[in-house]
């Protein structure tokens, strides 16, 4: 993730977390909001998620340098934060083996240097990880970013994949 993405990440966190049934009272206090954050990067969206005081914020990150950055910034000591030092594919194996409880109100996917096949693989497993009909999923769409036509094709493909995977999709732009 890069610094210029800050405004995008702030709006994304707001749309994912500022909705019923997650918000209770003032100051964006949440009840039992549970977030899965796949890919940490610079921690921009993670920091925005923390403003909503989630009861559980699981961060999946495989890169050793990013894990060191996470530790240096004190993330393992934040309330409700759990760091999974590995790939999302390994996380799903641990979930399937009942090593980890994995029902989330919000799932955000932004991994570095993974192609469409990986995103599709995540889509196929993501709907089982959502906590219910009000749960939300989003991802940072950087596929085909250097050519508008490819970007549009990937957007349409992702929409079809999401509908096929189970959750209702809306707001495709």
TrEMBL record:
One of its GO terms (cellular component) is nucleus. CDD domains: AdoMet_MTases (cd02440). Signal peptide: none annotated. GO terms for molecular function: protein arginine N5-methyltransferase activity. SUPFAM superfamilies: S-adenosyl-L-methionine-dependent methyltransferases. Transmembrane segments: none annotated. InterPro entries: RMT2/GAMT_Mtase, SAM-dependent_MTases_sf. This is Uncharacterized protein. The lineage of its organism: Eukaryota, Fungi, Dikarya, Basidiomycota, Pucciniomycotina.
């Amino acid at each position: 993730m890069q610094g210029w993405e800050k405004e995008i990440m702030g709006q994304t966190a707001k749309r994912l977390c500022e909705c019923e049934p997650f918000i209770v009272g003032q100051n964006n206090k949440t009840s039992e909001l549970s977030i899965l954050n796949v890919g940490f990067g610079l921690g921009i969206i993670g920091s925005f998620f923390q403003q909503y005081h989630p009861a559980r914020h699981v961060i999946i990150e495989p890169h050793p340098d990013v894990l060191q950055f996470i530790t240096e910034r004190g993330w393992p000591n934040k309330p409700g934060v759990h760091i999974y030092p590995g790939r999302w594919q390994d996380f799903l194996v641990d979930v399937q083996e009942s090593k980890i409880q994995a029902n989330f109100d919000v799932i955000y996917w932004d991994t570095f240097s993974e192609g469409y096949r990986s995103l599709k693989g995540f889509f196929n497993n993501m709907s089982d990880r959502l906590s219910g009909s009000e749960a939300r999923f989003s991802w940072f769409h950087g596929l085909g970013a250097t050519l508008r036509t490819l970007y549009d094709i990937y957007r349409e493909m992702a929409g079809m994949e999401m509908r096929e995977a189970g959750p209702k999709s809306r707001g495709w732009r």
